[in-house]
Structure formats: C-alpha cells, structure tokens
C-alpha cells in the first residue's frame, strides 16, 4: 500500500485568537508596522484575498473538499502566521498560545486521520516556550510553528536552548514559517514584502541555526523550513566558502554548513521545478516534504502537479509526495 499524500504546509484561520487580541494595546501598532512593511497596494489585494479564501481555512468541510480535489489525503495544519502576535505581553501571550493550540486541535479533531495540527510558541517570551510546546502536545498536536525571529531575538539566542532541547526530546515538529521582513519599507512595493521577504527571512533564520551550532547541540530536532528554506539551499556554497575561509564564520558550527541541510526538512513550495530539483540534490529526497501554503494566493492549488513537474525519479517523487511526512508524523 502506497503512502498517503501529505501536505505539511496548510493553514487555519482562528477567529478565537482574533477576538482575544481585539482592541488590546499593541495590536494597532503591530498592524501599522505590518502595513508599512507591505505597502498600501499589497494590503488592497490581500484583504479581499483572505476574505474570499477564509471559508477554506475555517470550515473543515470546505477544507476536505479542497483536499480531495487536490488529491491530498492528509494536511499538517498550522495557524496563519498572522496569529503569532509577538508584540503581546506575557499574560496576553499565554492566552494567545493556549487559545490557538486549543482551537487548532478542535479544528483538526473534526477530521481525525486527515488533519494533524501545530500550535504556537510566543518567541518574544522564551521563558514560556517550553510550556507552550507542552501545551500543544497535550492537545494532541504534532508540534509548533514559529517565525524566523522575534523582536530583538534571533533563533540562535541561547534563551531558546530549552525549546530546542524539549522539542528534540519529545519528537515534536518545529515548523519555521516567517511572518514579516525586517527590510521594512525597502520591500513595500509589488508585494516584495512576501516575494523577497519570506525567502530572505528563511535564509537568515536557518543560517542562525546552522552557524551558531544549534543543530550540533540538538541533532534530533525535527525542524521543517517553509518555502523550501528560502534562498539558502541554492546559495549554500557561499556559506561553505565562508566557513572554510574565515575564522569568524567557522567558529560556531562543527561541520560545513551544507551538511546541515541533510539534518533539516524542507517543504516543496519553491514555484520552480529546477529549484525543487536543486533542493532535493542538496538536502536529499528524504528531507523534502510536499507543501502547498493552503489556502493563500502565494501557495499552489495543485502541489502534486508542482512536484511532478520536477521530473524526479519515482522513488523520490513518492517519498516527497507523502512517505517522508508519513514517517515524520508517525502515520499508521
């Protein structure tokens, strides 16, 4: 029996979280920053797009119908990154992650076997991170979703060591999905905030994890990078050169940076069959997972066709289509 087709990059919208933060100090400021980073033209398109697609990310019946049309058997569902709310104080942050975890679990529970979920961790309060992870696992979720950084903190920050330790111990998935790019107004036209910003943020975050030695200290960490890891996998040779040529670049990690790509997982959402082939070459076919970014417009409506377009060997195609994720999620 062949493995199910598993999409590891699919989102849920959580009105419960929106209701929790509505009107709180800090939300308006965070939205103003988001507006400044994206620019007015992008906001004018994004608002109607999200409203039109919201039913597919809130109603389980609509989600299952879309999955059936795509030929997807299982989704790993993560909250929309708009729910991170890394501006929130400690009390609010705890309420956010608890409500997000519980609401995501409730959504997935409506289709057991077909939907698995991820919770949230308040990266702005590292002391809450392990508690948030444990809460997510208590709800029956498979792990947590995080952004590429929190205000003033990179993922290489020692404050996150307990999170990596516990995630590795528990076999929990950590899904790295950026939200917002610190290049700010430089990307405020033509939706560059997402087009360029997301792959930049992926590359920066993964570089912090690699060069700082996080992956040396936590070899069992199950980390999935969205958007194929951004720009890093296709330019990893530059990282290897720096590690070999400069004492400062090579000081933090034990091995060539490219070797760590085989310790990470990546989704297949790169929008180019040649880039997908290169990702498979540098990371290994066993480290790439099907991803669609359901149901946003920067995703793909047919992730299996996008994978097929890369013309990979049959064994690699089926591994990425679902076998790798089925093993990672321990699907029976």
Report what the structure shows.
- With 332 residues, this protein is α/β, with parallel strands linked by helices.
- The chain has one domain (6-328): Alpha-Beta Barrel (TIM Barrel), CATH 3.20.20.
- Helix content is 46%, strand content 12%.
- It has helices at 15-21, 27-38, 40-58, 60-70, 90-109, 129-138, 161-170, 192-195, 197-211, 214-217, 236-245, 273-283, 303-308, 314-328; strands at residues 6-12, 74-79, 115-117, 119-120, 143-146, 149-150, 153-154, 173-176, 222-225, 265-267, 288-289.
- The strands form 3 sheets. The chain has a 6-stranded parallel beta sheet. Strands 1-2-3 form a 3-stranded parallel beta sheet. Strands 6-7 form a two-stranded antiparallel ribbon.
- Strand 4 (119-120), helix 6 (129-138) and strand 5 (143-146) form a beta-alpha-beta unit.
- Helix 1 (15-21) packs antiparallel against helix 5 (90-109) and helix 3 packs across helix 4.
- It is globular, with a radius of gyration of 19 Å.
- 48% of the residues are buried.
- The mean pLDDT is 97.
- One of its GO terms (molecular function) is carboxy-lyase activity.
- Residues 6-331 form the Amidohydrolase-related domain.
- InterPro entries: ACMSD (IPR032465), Amidohydro-rel (IPR006680), Metal_Hydrolase (IPR032466).
């Amino acid at each position: 029996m062949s493995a199910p087709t598993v999409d590891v990059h699919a989102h849920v919208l959580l009105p419960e979280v929106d209701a929790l933060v509505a009107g709180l100090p800090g939300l308006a400021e965070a939205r103003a920053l988001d507006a400044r980073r994206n620019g007015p033209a992008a906001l004018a398109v994004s608002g109607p797009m999200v409203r039109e697609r919201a039913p597919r990310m809130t109603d389980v019946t609509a989600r299952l119908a879309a999955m059936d049309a795509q030929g997807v058997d299982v989704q790993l569902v993560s909250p929309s990154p708009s729910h991170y709310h890394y501006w929130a104080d400690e009390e609010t942050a705890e309420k956010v992650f608890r409500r997000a975890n519980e609401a995501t679990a409730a959504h997935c529970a409506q289709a057991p076997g077909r939907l698995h979920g991820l919770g949230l961790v308040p990266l702005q309060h590292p002391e809450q991170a392990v508690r948030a992870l444990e809460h997510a696992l208590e709800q029956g979720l498979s792990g947590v979703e995080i952004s590429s950084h929190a205000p003033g903190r990179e993922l290489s920050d020692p404050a996150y060591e307990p999170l990596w330790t516990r995630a590795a111990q528990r076999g929990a998935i950590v899904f790295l999905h950026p939200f917002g790019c610190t290049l700010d107004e430089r990307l405020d036209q033509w939706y560059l905030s997402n087009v360029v910003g997301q792959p930049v943020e992926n590359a920066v975050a993964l570089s912090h994890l690699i060069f700082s030695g996080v992956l040396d200290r936590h070899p069992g960490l199950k980390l999935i990078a969205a958007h194929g890891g951004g720009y890093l996998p296709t330019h990893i040779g530059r990282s290897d050169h720096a590690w070999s040529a400069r004492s400062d670049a090579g000081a933090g990690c034990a091995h060539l940076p490219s070797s760590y790509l085989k310790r990470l997982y990546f989704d297949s959402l790169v929008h180019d069959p040649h880039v997908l082939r290169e990702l498979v070459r540098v990371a290994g076919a066993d480290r790439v997972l099907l991803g669609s970014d359901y149901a946003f417009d920067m995703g793909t409506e047919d992730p299996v066709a996008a994978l097929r377009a890369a013309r990979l060997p049959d064994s690699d195609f089926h591994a990425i289509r679902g076998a790798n994720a089925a093993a990672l999620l321990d699907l029976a």
